[in-house]
Amino acid sequence: MKRVDGKLSDESAGDFVDVLLNLEMENSLSDSDMIAVLWEMIFRGTDTVAILLEWILARMVLHPDIQSKAQSEIDSLVGNDRLVSNSDLPNLPYLLAIVKETLRVHPPGPLLSWARLAIHDVHIGRNFIPAGTTAMVNMWAITHDENVWSEPNEFKPERFINEDVSIMGSDLRLAPFGSGRRICPGKALGMATVQLWLAQLLQNFKWVPSDSGVDLSECLNYLWR
Ligand code: HEM
Known about the structure:
By secondary structure, the protein is mainly alpha-helical. It has helices at 16-21, 31-45, 47-62, 64-78, 93-105, 139-143, 158-162, 187-204; strands at 3-4, 7-8, 111-117, 122-124, 127-129, 134-138. The chain has a single domain, classed as CATH 1.10.630.10.
């Protein structure tokens, strides 16, 4: 990072910590707030991205036809002379459909809003929810519900080519980043990271099964929360 008169120069905006350190006046953060922001970014933003990519690669191994379709899309847009880059991503709709379909079948955050507390007794439909109950949204159940998704257990990225479903919280059939006030603030960064890394991994490697095959068993493990 370069500084001119104590400020960041035009040549470099510095990294994220520099940006936090340079916030001025009413925007400036205390040390403990800064640590909290960085802590949240690291613990919320690393596992989720890694887990999603791991599921996508497992699916690429299991569905070689889908893998090669994505590779053809990248090859015809980018060719072999350069690495796929961020600016290519808007022109790779099938790649995006693969990421969306993996978020549907294997959402890294399957339970949303699990810290919401019912402060009054309430009836929702036929269900009575007493005050003091912690309410969660089971996104996994919604994305596997055959009343919501046709053939919910089939991995079919094409469904997102046929229908443009937003995953950013406005369509509750698929809200892998949550929705409303406590929606994931890192959703755009997470999507951009996963799409770019996936594109580069597909551009450079063919993904094939090992002798032990692919283990798709899931477990709920909220260590990152
Ligand atoms: C593909 C990657 C990601 C997925 C699937 C994901 C998913 C989620 C989900 C489901 C929630 C909870 C929403 C709710 O309870 O209603 C959440 C919250 C959060 N995420 Fe992400 N996330 C991802 C990437 C990131 C990244 C990259 C960052 C930061 C750099 C981040 C930071 C956070 C934070 C700080 C919260 C808590 C928000 C709050 O409670 O107000 N996430 N995320």
